[in-house]
């Protein structure tokens, strides 16, 4: 039997358990017709590139399947009827890779980075708004000059 990879995108209103239940329904249907699921990866709730049916986020699930083409057509029909499934894509592949997908391996790299420490002090580290007189060239020029009084005090004298 040929191998397939199917990625499905489910609504963000659905819980992770409901997405897993969709995968279980697919597995039961395929096993009844002689196929099986070799790989199942839940990628999590991710932001979509554009809105799909008013959803900005969705649950992603990758399935590695071995199935007959007729049972695959039935699986795709069932996914199309399910209201929780926004999109799905099924591709035929030569062999199912048992290693974690690129999405999951990239998530692991992000977790390993961890805390990098405080940000180094830069040129504009304080974040306060500076006026025209606070520019560096004016401060360098005025360093040798006697200190100026604030405008409020200078007007009273």
What topology emerges from the helices and strands here?
Blueprint: E1 3-11, H1 16-32, E2 36-52, E3 55-66, H2 69-81, E4 85-93, H3 102-113, H4 136-142, H5 151-156
Q: What are the main properties of this structure?
A:
single chain; 157 residues; alpha+beta; Alpha-Beta Plaits; 5 helices; elongated
Task: Describe this structure as you would to a colleague.
This protein has a domain at 3-96: Alpha-Beta Plaits (2-Layer Sandwich). It is elongated and about 95 Å long. A four-stranded antiparallel beta sheet has the order 2-3-1-4. It is an alpha+beta fold and 157 residues long. Helix 1 (16-32) runs antiparallel to helix 2. The protein has helices at residues 16-32, 69-81, 102-113, 136-142, 151-156, and strands at 3-11, 36-52, 55-66, 85-93. The protein is 35% helix and 30% strand.
Number of beta-strand segments: 4
Instruction: Output the strand order for the largest sheet.
Output: 2-3-1-4
Silhouette: elongated
Question: Which stretches are low in confidence, meaning pLDDT under 50 for 5 or more residues running?
Answer: none
CATH superfamily of the domain at 3-96: Ribosomal protein S6/Translation elongation factor EF1B
First-residue to last-residue Cα separation: 95 Å
Based on the coordinates given, report the CATH architecture of the domain at 3-96.
2-Layer Sandwich
Tell me the series of helices and strands, N- to C-terminal: EHEEHEHHH
Helix content: 25-40%
Radius of gyration: 29 Å
Number of helices: 5
CATH topology of the domain at 3-96: Alpha-Beta Plaits
Strand percentage, roughly? Answer: 25-35%
Main sheet characteristics:
4 strands, antiparallel
Q: Which class best fits the helix and strand makeup?
A: alpha+beta
Q: Let me know the average pLDDT.
A: 81
Classified by CATH, the class of the domain at 3-96 is Alpha Beta
